[in-house]
Amino acid sequence: MAEYLASIFGTEKDKVNCSFYFKIGACRHGDRCSRLHNKPTFSQTIVLLNLYRNPQNTAQTADGSHCHVSDVEVQEHYDNFFEEVFTELQEKYGEIEEMNVCDNLGDHLVGNVYVKFRREEDAERAVAELNNRWFNGQAVHAELSPVTDFRESCCRQYEMGECTRGGFCNFMHLRPISRNLRRQLYGRGPRHRSPPRSHTGHRPRERNRRRCPDHRRGRF
Ligand SMILES: [Zn+2]
Ligand SMILES: [Zn+2]
């Protein structure tokens, strides 16, 4: 019996534990879900909820019509966002194994940024500190995530370009970064930079820190 329960843990057959929360770290029922969301007490992965704002979804003029934002601009904006978040988190908290951003539209997945650190203690510290931070005018909401294997959480149809559920799919639709940026962020050999251990003054320093002119264009 115990073996059977272990084999179905976190799958659709499991009537107790929510398979969506287990695999994707987010479920559309949120706190009202009838199944359990087992929040991890330690994990290599953190999620920053709703952090990425796709300008194609948010750009609206005063009369409610959509501004035109080209695909090239969106990719550039996204690459800048990705690089900034990745670089800052890696410098502050420790080596990142992988980072993924959801391009879904459902409230529980839209703009979620998943960061998998190499070490659990780095993830823990990141969550504790990031919850006191602001990013582009909104409070950051960070938590430890049960997601460890992104192949399990991704929508396979989306990767083949054939997901019929579109943005409201409940599996992750991960937005790819450009090839150059991928090479730049992941392509270095073994990293030797040790993260700075300063614990002081993150908030004001953060505001002054934004050097990259792309983030002053006020697209948010
Ligand atoms: Zn659930
Ligand atoms: Zn899908």
From TrEMBL:
Domain RRM, first and last residues per copy = 65-147
Give residue spans, biased composition: Basic residues.
Answer: 189-220
* Localization per Swiss-Prot or TrEMBL: Nucleus speckle
Domain of life of the source? Eukaryota
In Swiss-Prot or TrEMBL terms, this protein is called U2 small nuclear RNA auxiliary factor 1-like 4
Q: Which residues form a coiled coil?
A: none
- Which stretches does the record call C3H1-type zinc fingers? 12-40, 149-176
Keyword annotations: Metal-binding, mRNA processing, mRNA splicing, Nucleus, Repeat, RNA-binding, Spliceosome, Zinc, Zinc-finger
Q: Which Gene3D superfamilies match?
A: 3.30.70.330
Q: Tell me, which GO biological process terms does this entry list?
A: mRNA splicing, via spliceosome
MF terms (GO), sorted A to Z: RNA binding; zinc ion binding
Looking up Pfam families in the UniProt record yields: RRM_1, zf-CCCH
Residues spanning the signal sequence: none
Output the InterPro entries linked to this UniProt entry. Nucleotide-bd_a/b_plait_sf, RBD_domain_sf, RRM_dom, RRM_euk-type, U2AF_small, Znf_CCCH
Question: Is Nucleotidyltransferase among the key words of this record?
Answer: no
* Classification via CDD domains: RRM_U2AF35
* Family as reported in the entry's similarity comment: Belongs to the splicing factor SR family.
User: Where do the C3H1-type domain residues begin and end?
Assistant: 12-40, 149-176
